[in-house]
């Protein structure tokens, strides 16, 4: 799956938990926490991402440093899909 396709699906999932965020205007490298994502929403997003892509995200990636923006989430998901993580 191409990174652009992963990104689109990740944004669809995020939109369910972060209403009103204009991804095009803030950029995909913006901090999700600064956009209002709390820890409960993050857990729900991770569960939805795992289900959507049929992957299991290792615990060591469940940190803001590793998955705190759209770009970082896409990087992790693509790495898992490609088998490089």
Task: Please sum up the structure shown.
The chain is mainly alpha-helical.
Number of strands: 0
- In the residues, how many domains can be counted? 1
The amount of helix comes to 55-70%
The stretches of 5 or more residues where confidence is low (pLDDT under 50) are none
CATH superfamily: ACP-like
Per CATH, the class reads Mainly Alpha
Would you list the SSEs in sequence order as H and E? HHHHH
Largest sheet: none
Please report the number of helical segments: 5
Provide mean pLDDT, rounded: 93
Q: From the 3D structure, determine the CATH topology.
A: Non-ribosomal Peptide Synthetase Peptidyl Carrier Protein, Chain A
**What is the SS-derived class?**
mainly alpha
Description:
The chain is an all-alpha fold and about 80 residues long. It has a single domain, classed as Non-ribosomal Peptide Synthetase Peptidyl Carrier Protein, Chain A (Orthogonal Bundle). It contains 5 helices and no strands. Helix 1 crosses helix 3 and helix 1 packs across helix 5 (about 70-80). The protein starts with a helix and ends with a helix.
List the helices and strands and how they pair.
Blueprint: H1 3-17, H2 23-26, H3 39-53, H4 64-67, H5 70-82
Key phrases:
5 helices; Non-ribosomal Peptide Synthetase Peptidyl Carrier Protein, Chain A; 85 residues; mainly alpha; globular
């Amino acid at each position: 799956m191409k990174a652009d396709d992963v990104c689109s699906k990740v944004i669809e999932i995020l939109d369910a938990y972060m209403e009103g965020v204009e991804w095009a205007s803030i950029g995909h490298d913006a901090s999700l926490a600064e956009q209002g994502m709390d820890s409960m929403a993050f857990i729900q997003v991770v569960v939805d991402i795992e289900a959507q892509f049929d992957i299991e995200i290792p615990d060591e990636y469940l940190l803001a440093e590793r998955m705190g923006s759209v770009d970082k989430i896409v990087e992790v998901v693509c790495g898992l899909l490609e088998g490089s993580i």
